[in-house]
Batch of 3 targets.
Target 1
Amino acid sequence: MKKALMTVLGVFCLLNTQAQVTIAYCKFEQGCKFYQTQYSFKDIDNLLGYLGTFEKSKGTMVFFKNKQGQDIHYPDNKRSVKQLNEYFGGKGEPNVAKGGLPFEKAIQPKDGNWIAKTDKPILKNCPSQLANQTDGFANIKSGNKVFSKPFNPSDLLPPNAKWLTLAENTYRATVLPEAEAAFKTFYTVNVLSPTQLSGVTDIYVNIPNQKTCEMKINFTFTAK
C-alpha cells in the first residue's frame, strides 16, 4: 500500500513539473486571449527570469501593455481564466487555444538572403580574458533564409532555442534554460517589417567567487 502511494505521488509530481503553462495576452477594456504552451513552469520561469518563483507559485502568465505603452508580464495565481478575462474587460468564459498564432496580424518576414550585423558587445563584470573572446558569442549569421509560416525565430537563430511570444512581433528564447548552467544565453527578437528584424543577445556567465559576467550584444537582420 505504501509503495503504491509513493508511486502515485511520484507520478503526480512528475506531471505537475511537466504541466503546460497557460499564457494570457490581454488588453484593457478588451479582455484576454489564452493559449496553452508546450512549455513547463520551469521553462517559462527561466525564459522570463523569475528565479524559481513562478515555477513554485505557478498560475497563468499574463502579458499586457500598460498605459505608458510598456510591455508588462506577471504571473497571476489568484484569478481563473474567466476572472482574468473579466478583469481586463472581457465577457464570458474564454476559450483556451492550443498552439496556433497568438497574434493574427504577426509580420511574416520574406524568404531570401538576409544580412546579419552585430554591434560591439556591452560587458559588465567580465574578466579581460573573456572580454577578448566575444567574437561569435551572439551566434548571428547571414545567409539564405526560408521561414516557416507562421514565422518562427528558430529559422533564423539557434534551432535548439525555446521561443515564447512576448508581444505582437516580439519573441524571446533561451538556449540553456537549466539554472545550473555556467552559460545562460537569451535572445529577444523584434520583427519590424517583412525585411527588417532587430534583437539583442544577453549572455550571463557564472564565474566562481566573482560577480556574474554579463554581455549584451545588439544585432539586426536585413533582407537584401
Target 2
Amino acid sequence: MHAVCLIPSESERSTNMPIATIQIMEGRDEAAKAKLIAAVTDAICDSIGARREAVRVLVQEIPKSQWGIGGETAEALGR
C-alpha cells in the first residue's frame, strides 16, 4: 500500500504552523516525552507536509488526582 502525500506550495508552507496539544497523565520520564514529541512531529510532517521547524507540540501533564476514570481519580485507582 502506498500513500500519496500532497505537498503544499512554498507559500502555503510558510504560513503553516500546526500546533498539537497532547494531554497525558503525569509520570512519564523526559525521554518518553521527547520520543512522543518527535513521533507526533513526524506524523504531522508526513501527513500534511508541514515544515519540521514550523511544527509545535505541547505536552500537558495532568496530575493523577485530576484525571478521572469511571468516576474515580487515577490516583485512587492506583494508576
Target 3
Amino acid sequence: MAAPIEKDLLDTISAIATLVTPFLLLGLGGLGWIIQNKIQSSQSKDLAKDTRIRELEDKLREDRIKTYNAILEPFFLLFTSEEAFSKDPKFKNKNKNDLAMAKMLGFYPEFTDTSKKPIVG
C-alpha cells in the first residue's frame, strides 16, 4: 500500500517540476540578461567618459605647449648667443635684450599699460 502513495507523490513532484522548469529558466535567463545589459551599459559609459577625458587632455596639452613656448621664448632669446641671434633672418637688425624684455612685458599687460594706476589705500 505504501508503494502507490509514494508513486503518486513522485508523479506529482515530477509534473510540478516539468511545469515549473521552463518558468524558472525564463526568469533566471531574463535576470541574467538584465544584469548583462547593466554591466555593458556601465562599461560603455565608462569608455565614453575615458574617451572624453583623453580628448580634453590632448587639447589641454596643446594649450600648455603654446603657453610654455610663449613664456619661455624671451628666455631663449636672452640665452641665445649673439652670433646665433644675428644669423637668424627673423631678428635681423634687432637687439635681443630689448626684444626679450618687450616679449616678457607683453605677457603682463598691467605692466605695459601706464594709464591704469594701482589702487593704493
